[in-house]
Write a structure and sequence with these properties.
Chains A, B: InterPro entries: Homeodomain-like_sf (IPR009057), HTH_TetR (IPR001647), Tet_transcr_reg_TetR-rel_C_sf (IPR036271), TetR_C (IPR011075). Chains A, B: This is TetR/AcrR family transcriptional regulator. Chains A, B: It comes from Methylobacterium marchantiae. The structure is a homodimer. The first copy, chain A, has about 180 residues and is mainly α. Chain A has two domains: about 50 residues, Homeodomain-like (Arc Repressor Mutant, subunit A, Orthogonal Bundle), CATH 1.10.10; about 110 residues, Tetracycline Repressor, domain 2 (Orthogonal Bundle). Helix content of chain A is about 70%, strand content about 0%. The first copy, chain A, is built from nine helices and no strands. In chain A, α3 packs parallel to α7, α7 crosses α8 and α8 packs antiparallel against α9. Chain A is elongated and about 60 Å long. Chain A starts with a helix and ends with a helix. The structure holds a DNA duplex (30 and 30 nucleotides).
Amino acid sequence: MRVTQEQMRENRRRILAAASRLYREKGFDAVGVAEVMKAAGLTHGGFYGHFESKEDLMAQAIAHATTELSGRDDDVGGFLAAYLSPAHRNDAANGCPMAALAADVRHRPPAARAAMTAGIRAQIDRLTRALPDSVTTERRRDAIGTYAAMIGALILARAVEDPALSDEILGETRAWVNPDP
Amino acid sequence: MRVTQEQMRENRRRILAAASRLYREKGFDAVGVAEVMKAAGLTHGGFYGHFESKEDLMAQAIAHATTELSGRDDDVGGFLAAYLSPAHRNDAANGCPMAALAADVRHRPPAARAAMTAGIRAQIDRLTRALPDSVTTERRRDAIGTYAAMIGALILARAVEDPALSDEILGETRAWVNPDP
DNA sequence: ATCCAAATATGATCGCGATCATATGAGTGT
DNA sequence: ACACTCATATGATCGCGATCATATTTGGAT
């Protein structure tokens, strides 16, 4: 059956949202086109009316996730605490797309890597603007180091099966990158 | 044909070495049993004489890689420089198994996660022993934060397609975690 | 109102990869 | 030497997932 142009755009948005959530939760390979379409409330056949291929979907889903999650630029401390929280660790599906997919994107075609690169660059720039100035270090260096530690800690905390060690990695990294508060 | 007990153990070692290299290079999903066996100089059928399943192989390959790469504990500065070098970024196949596989292991069965957990714990302990003592921070906290930053930076550097940004992430993180030298 | 094109649904196809069944042939203990 | 067992080789099987072919239904323009 046919559908309103409005409805079609909405369906496309649904597909992207479902894909970006499923990819973050399970990884690119574990999520099939049919599963994405089902999660979007559609059937698998219509997929190729919206996207060229699964590769195309991966790239657009990354872009969708990275542009959607751009919060406010103030309150770095709060951002850090939320990022390195057990809640974020336990909810990859709605969390940071870089922590969930950056390692995976290494094996993906150029379009997906380009989208990821744009997201990483934007996040570093945002952090650079948000971080407090310091006499001893440069802001951009701080931003890059802090971002790397955040992502590394979240990935490690998610990889580890021992909850105590996982919590320790989150908590100690948070104290380490932000010693003052 | 049959083979010496010695030869069989050697074959098993070859399979593990090939698997650990291929997994680090391409990820778990992209590497099939047949490819691993071929890289080890065998045919795919004999695989189940050595391992229960692909899951079993994944877990043992992680353990193999993590126990093999335990270098000396001194010279943290040199270790850091090598870890955050373009050479390491470009050679995931022979590099740190955590940077290559920790994010992936999140989607794997318990055995693989247990092996990865053991490797991460050992590496944190090793770094804790190797880091210089400090008045302002605790050694274990330093170790965890530094390790997180190293892994995060390497993952980001490998995800990014722009070589300039990739190099910058490596270099700035290195300067950030180790400001003195 | 009517016709047409477009969006989705339904149902192949096609290749790939994990696992298993059977065959082969050479180590191993007697 | 001999029989026998076991490691490997060869060749199915089996399910899954990406992609495509065809059908269906209804927006949208005339």
